[in-house]
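Quick one, tokens below:
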């Protein structure tokens, strides 16, 4: 564990990817491999039948002995309560959490809750796996809310990428390690003149 990244002594992993890329499955594999008690903090809410079916599918694939905390908005509070040195927590997922904050009635919730999360993460006493959708690979969205969402998700991912010990990008069900605990991410080099 590098002290310059996470002073809490716990390992933090960010798992990014597109829809149905295997993010949740990979996060579950990381948690299972730890051999510790697992808590899942689920941020999704069943706003319609299709979403209710997605939530039910996720529940059906989780081991029954795992603890489940459903928290759509106050993620920092849920993480603070769930994290312990003897366990590992999966947050699934940050993009649903961002949606809940952006579409909620409190206009200050997004800034307040994201700041609280980013301040808390380096101090967590237990390991944490954060799952989020990478939404910045497509075309620029056609409406202002969708553009704002993509911007907010991109900013959050950059901040989390700097904080986390490990960053994994899922593509076609395959984990691609972008940042690993034993090596720093590749430095961005300036382009050579004439190139």
């Amino acid at each position: 564990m590098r002290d310059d990244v996470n002073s809490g002594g716990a390992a933090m992993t960010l798992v990014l990817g597109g829809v149905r890329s295997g993010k949740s499955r990979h996060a579950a594999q990381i948690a299972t491999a730890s051999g510790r008690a697992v808590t899942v903090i689920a941020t999704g809410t069943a706003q319609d039948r299709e979403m209710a079916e997605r939530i039910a599918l996720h529940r059906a694939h989780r081991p029954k002995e795992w603890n489940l905390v459903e928290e759509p908005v106050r993620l920092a509070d849920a993480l603070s309560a769930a994290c312990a040195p003897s366990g590992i927590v999966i947050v699934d997922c940050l993009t649903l959490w961002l949606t809940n904050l952006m579409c909620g009635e409190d206009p200050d919730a997004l800034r307040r809750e994201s700041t609280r999360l980013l301040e808390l993460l380096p101090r967590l006493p237990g390991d944490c796996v954060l799952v989020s959708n990478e939404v910045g690979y497509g075309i620029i969205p056609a409406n202002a809310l969708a553009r704002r969402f993509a911007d907010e998700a991109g900013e959050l991912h950059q901040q989390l990428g700097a904080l986390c010990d490990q960053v994994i990008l899922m593509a076609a069900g395959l984990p691609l390690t972008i940042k690993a605990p034993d090596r720093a991410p590749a430095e961005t080099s300036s382009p050579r003149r004439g190139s």
